[in-house]
Structure prediction request, 566 residues.
Amino acid sequence: MSKAAPVPRTRAEFHRAEHNAVIVDGEVYFAVEREASVHVLSSRCPHRGGPLHLGEMEGEKLRCPWHGSMFPIARLCDRSHPAVRVGDTVAVYLPTGKSEPVAVKTIVRAGVTTA
Amino acid sequence: MTNRTPLDDSPSDIAGLSEQFSRLPQFRSTNKQFIVGNPYHRPMNPDALRGLDWGRPLTQETFASNDSLLANRLLMNVYESDALFLPEAGLSKFEGEFVDFYHQDSKVLGERVRPTAENFAFGFLDDSVGVSGKWDEESLRAHLRHAVDRANNHGGRPVFDAILSSRDPRTAANTQIAQMALDGLTEATAMAQNLGGAFGPEQSELFKIFVDEFGYGVFPAKHSTLFMDMCRSVGMSTTPHHYWFFYLPSSIAINNYFYWATRNRTGFFRYIGAMAYLEASFAAFFEELNKLFRAVYGDAVDTRYCDEHAHIDQHHGRMAIEDLLIPLARKHGPVAAKGLLQGVEEIQLLARLGDADLLAQLTWDPALTDQVAATERTGPVTEIDSDTAFDTEVTSADTRVQVLGGEALLYNSATGDPLRVPQGKAVIVPAGRLYGIHADRRTQITKEPVA
Prediction:
């Protein structure tokens, strides 16, 4: 388990056929499916905050649409937010915000990858 | 990661091996509906097993199917040949059966079938449940709290309601007890499989729970003894697998799940997750079960088994989470956290599927179904009599059982009277339901899917 100082988290649930992202306080968290798991990633690029959910997959890497930073998808998934999928329902624990999490269907260009 | 050579038994090899296994003497057929006093006699159906397509594993949708029944009966026999059973009446009448059940050849054959059968029975869980992300202790705790709260604030138990509102609540409650007997009469056998080895303080924490299960070495306080006392108080058998034919596929599968998780050491974390979840939700469950049994059986029922769980599982729930699950996750990292969560989720999923199966069985009352006139037959006629091997099966579609001559006795519960279906009549068995047919005299029947 992560030994970092705990981040207060709030549970969010979504149905993967209906939603592919969750928004908390304007922050987008998007779903990437690899094999049987659904990984929920922060969309904010660590470089300049670009929207990773609009990035493209190039092989096993995700390219940020703003400045072209490349991130191995496996590494992003390893650091994804804690989540459990049972059937099509995904429960994820996201950093707590001022607003409640809202599940949405939006454009996610890197949503499904093969490992 | 180490490269492994996959086992080279193909599904067709497994079909042959499983049939061979099921033809061993201890798995022979019987014309009786109950297995009396013999813990080794566990009938299997070689012909049906030969037809099982091991290349098409079970899914959530087929978890309670006839394929599931066949595969899980076989798996249970493989697993339980690793546990010691001795007949209550002593071995003298069963020496041959004792040797057959634990014979090396039988065990080797069972072991060859086991990995394929396990993948067949439980492979779907890897597709149904996925755990991802970087879990910390707080999120793990939050997730467990949510799961246990949901179990304890469930908004009603449809199975209990069905028992209370059935035409014969006693028979319905007996059906519930018969399913529980799978585990109740051998309680904590799966848990015992992980007591050995060396895994630090958590090994001792697991042992504390195990000691409670075993009544601190006092036989009358052992949980399985309390379960036997409960069975006895309501006139039910206390012999393991007396009700062999009336276990629902989902009940056997859930029992097997714990054998599967403990038999395979890499399943340890999965086992602890599933066990911790159950222990944390059992206290409330058994308190309600206690009330149900009182309402059904009155004062005669010995509910100390329920009382014990309603009490001790308040402690076990805390112990299993605080002293086992969380420390294991802290110490062993992502592999442990993933396995633990996998177990927590899988057992909830299996319990939901099991409840649905039991509910459907309880609410199917053949006696309340009008027997219809037999129609023109199109299927093959089977002739049965009192010597014909008895078996139960699960229908894949609504099935019309027609009696062309004689009289058929339709069994669908562990202790209820069979439904008598006379010549010229037919009864519809709904899809997915478990039933068996017996006849006291020569009888001709057909079984056909309802068009």
Q: What stands out?
A: Chain B touches chain A through 28 residues (CB under 8 Å).
